[in-house]
Design goal:
homodimer, alpha+beta, Jelly Rolls, 2 domains, four-stranded antiparallel β-sheet, 47% helix, 22% strand, DNA-binding
DNA sequence: CGCGCGATTGAGTAATTTCAAATCTAGTGG
DNA sequence: CCACTAGATTTGAAATTACTCAATCGCGCG
């Protein structure tokens, strides 16, 4: 995707699905976002970083992940366009990142500072409503995934994931899918060849 | 615990930790809550119910759980005093309950209708802020638990749970702990006797 | 053509589950 | 105070499942 893209329109649409802002309000909100480009493989948040932004994906695909002591990676989230990503624990509690975020493909993001988000939430009630809605969606999704983890085996979770985001199949290497499902890549491979 | 208890003071404290409301505002907010008593084992939300309330625990202990086709139970959350519980998926998306909620011990709760919550969020900006904060906490906690599920074995998760809520050990039967950790009760038993 | 990364396959091992049986514990009624 | 019962917990043994490690395969790109 060589060039521009109306970041503003994309964000505006996204927000308008939930709350209505006047044009001035939206312009003001938008002025707090910074657009950034990243290349495939590039890190956005690395373990140990101070985290003060969250990222809205315009284009491309990010992953947020954790790497344990045995250097095994676990993927918390794939972030596709109009999704948000960050280390929300560090972002809200002010610690250093334990969750990393990087780019699976070349990506365009809008980045919003946490202090700015709080300011906007304070100044414009509908913005606060929007962020409550968004977090709520994330919460419900996380609970669903947790349940699926406890209840379903890896094959079932694999099919669930593919049904939900068919696009992933072509974009992300299978080992990342395995890291999302919480199984070894060998196990995943055996799963869908039988 | 034979008798009263200042429900109002408990909720007021809880909210005041996050946002400040005037006394009139809080009185108004509080007027939308209904206090209810439940006995040990009693159901608050059952699978298939229409869900239109969420519950703030004043006293006692609830669990929210899912039961699968093989009648195996998985616990999403133990709700202790000042925690909130409901089937948030059904509550926000308007479906029937797939998650049930019941009482592990005799309990006192304050119940808030979803329509009322939205009304209050609309009318009083700080209330919306409060609920955003609360949901955010839940979101971060759910992500942490998800990671722990992928990364740690059952023993580790058991120790984590006990470190976080030592009170549970004396209150809830071990099989419920197992249902929370996502292991069989036999495995849990073997875990902490070695 | 051959390198390198990702994906697959095989074999042995470790962890968890299931099913069944034995044990423990708190509360009840005599 | 004791016997009894229901529910909870523990233990054993076999079966299942996923893991690791190692080797092989397949394919795109220089």
């Amino acid at each position: 995707m060589p060039f521009p893209m109306d970041a503003k329109a994309i964000l505006k649409d996204h927000i308008a699905k939930i709350v209505s802002l006047t044009d001035e309000q939206f312009d003001y909100v938008f002025s707090h976002f910074k657009q950034q480009s990243y290349k495939k493989g590039q890190a956005i948040i690395s373990e140990g970083d101070k985290v003060d932004c969250e990222y809205f994906v315009l284009e491309g695909c990010l992953k947020s992940f954790y790497i344990n002591d045995e250097v095994k990676m676990f993927i918390l989230q794939f972030a596709m366009p109009t999704w948000w990503a960050s280390d929300y624990n560090a972002l809200y509690n002010g610690g250093r990142a334990t969750i990393s975020v990087d780019c699976i493909t070349d990506s365009q993001v809008l980045c919003l500072n946490s202090a700015d988000r709080e300011k906007l939430c304070n100044e414009i009630h509908p913005v606060e409503h929007f962020f409550r809605w968004r977090t709520n969606k994330g919460y419900v999704a996380a609970q669903k995934r947790l349940l699926s983890f406890m209840n379903n085996d890896a094959r079932h979770r694999y099919e669930e994931l593919m049904a939900l985001y068919p696009a992933l199949y072509n974009i992300v290497p299978k080992q990342l899918i395995a890291a999302y499902l919480g199984v070894s890549r060998e196990t995943l491979s055996r799963l869908y060849n039988s």
